Every structure is written in C-alpha cells, then in structure tokens.
Amino acid sequence: MKLNTFLKQYDKITDDNERKEFLKKHLKRKYVPFIERNNAARRTVDATHIFDNKYRPNTQLFEMFKDLDFVELFTDIEFDRIVDGQPVSADIYDELMSRDIIDGFKDFLTFDQRGVWESTYYDTVDDLKYSMTSTISIIDDISKRIDNIINTFNDSVNNFIVSDKFDSIYNTLQAQDK
Q1: Three-state DSSP class for 169?
Q2: Residue 50 and residue 42: Cα distance in Å, rounded?
Q3: Of 9, 102, 160, 177, which has fewest CB within 10 angstroms of its CB?
Q4: 51: helix, strand or coil
Q5: Per the domain annotation, does 169 fall within a domain?
Q6: How much is the pLDDT for 38?
Q7: How far apart are CA 48 and CA 165, in angstroms?
Q8: 118 in any annotated domain
Q9: Is residue 101 part of a domain?
Q10: Which DSSP category does 34 fall into?
Q11: Tens-digit pLDDT profile for residues 41-56
Q12: Domain limits for position 49
C-alpha cells in the first residue's frame, strides 16, 4: 500500500483498538531474511557513515534510516526515499513518528523478535563498518607501500647518478695527476 493511502486511512480511524488492528493488518512478516537485512544495513551505512580511516556516524540519520528500514522490511507500506532527485526520508520519518506508527508496528513483534531485529541489524552494520574501514586501511597501506617503492627507486637512481658523477670527477682528477 502506498504511504499516502496508508496515512489517509490511518488518520480516519479514531479508536485506538481499531488503529492497532489496522497496523497489525499491514505487518507482513516477523522475520527479515539475511540478504534483505544486509542490503538495508548497507544502504544505511552508505548514507549515514563517513569513512576516512575512521568510522564517523551521523547518529540521527542512522536512527531514522534504521526505523525506515524496519517499516519498509516488515510492513506492506511502500514509499520512495528519493522523489524528483530530492531525499524525502526525513519527511516520511516525521509523518510516521508523529503518529507513533513505527513504535505501533514494533509493539506487534515479541520482545525476542524485536531484539533479534535490532541486534542483527546492528551486527550487520558493525560488520559493514569494519569491512569498509579495513578496506580503506588496506588501500592506504598499499598506497604507502607504492610510495615507499617509488621513493626508494628515486633515491637509488639519484644515488647512482651522484655516484656516477663522483666517479667521473675522480677519474678526471686521477688523469690530471698522471
């Protein structure tokens, strides 16, 4: 169901019990397969973390993306995070949070299911952060090694040229002495 349609129907309901039933009807599953969870976590990491040999999160964006991933993966609500080239994730998040819809959906999961979702999502994000920072460190390490090889080569060539010049001067001086 499209988000706007969902919100219009939700807003028409005035009874709390009916709202709970409405939310329950749109909860499509209680477990998210590994690949889907991994793809969602990768998108969140890409959008909310900066890697420059350090892990630096934007915590507010991360929490927003995590909650939007939850809604997208567990419910039948459809929404686009980018419209006409502009990000709209914050608007979607605000619409859902202002109505307590995200927490309403989470209430239908048992504590164990909710805990598994949270912990596996965070574990996946942590694994991605580690692999990305490790990759960057490896790239930096290789780059430094290449720089060292180039510098060593240049030093050797320069020493050879200087040594060759000294040899030439020495030979010239010895020829003059004879």
Answers
A1: helix
A2: 13
A3: 177
A4: strand
A5: no
A6: 83
A7: 58
A8: yes
A9: yes
A10: H
A11: 888 887 777 655 555 6
A12: 3-137
